[in-house]
Amino acid sequence: MVTLDFDALRETRATNPARLAEVYAERVRRPIAHGDGRLMIVAADHPARGAIAVNGNATAMADRYELLTNLAEALARPGVDGVLGTPDIIDDLALLGLLDNKIVVGSMNRGGLRGASFEMDDRYTAYDMPAIDRDGLDFAKNLIRINLSDAGSVDTLEASALAVSDAAELGIPIMLEPFMSEWVNGEIKNNLTTDQVILSVAIAAGLGNSSAYSWLKLPVVDDMERVMAATTLPTLLLGGDPGENVDALIEQWGNALRLPGVRGLVVGRSMLYPHDGDVARAVDVAATLVHG
Fold it and tell me: Is 9 helix (H, G, I), strand (E, B) or coil?
């Protein structure tokens, strides 16, 4: 079990907030393309969207100390290249000294809160590109849910395009996570049919005034060969919540990771809160799939 100094973390936050800037300035960075050129990223940006449920537990991610402990355990495992989160989580990890030699990904738009009437108007309420540049983070990430029957989507598309343009100007890679989405019985559902994922790729890849620094973050769906044939952008696979069928998901990941253009995995809840509670084992399985 990883031991973290939460007393010192709370004290620094209360009495010396300027310490964060010093920590980021001192952080040891690594190239994105390193070793085999593949990436295994742990995702933890869910709480800022109000998505704290995992495996049927409605408040699984509510305990910040448990989340940070699980993240620390995951980041300590061989083959884990980095972490994705909102400023509150990334700042905690920085103050705990856990970000050296890791790829740090800043999550940008979290305004489309789960279950809200304004969910499709997914405003940029977390990192922006100047802040990612300020803190010396390595990557940006945005979620681009496209709902053809909801006018809120156009604001998300415009903001996403501006973020892509800003990322290109700053020379910082940005992960685009697109979905074709729709309202179903008052809830937003992502359409994970192969054709709809391909359509989302076509739309997202064209955002911004340059695609030089654009990456994709895509779900694993049926016929991933067709999905990957739709883009030349470097692509990471998202993990999702596997429920009880973990073995089937792992097999899907393994097959998709062999496709041209796929550069790795971004996985969160399924590794940080596995059914058996063994974070290290779950992380090791995913890291072995990515790095062999």
Answer: helix
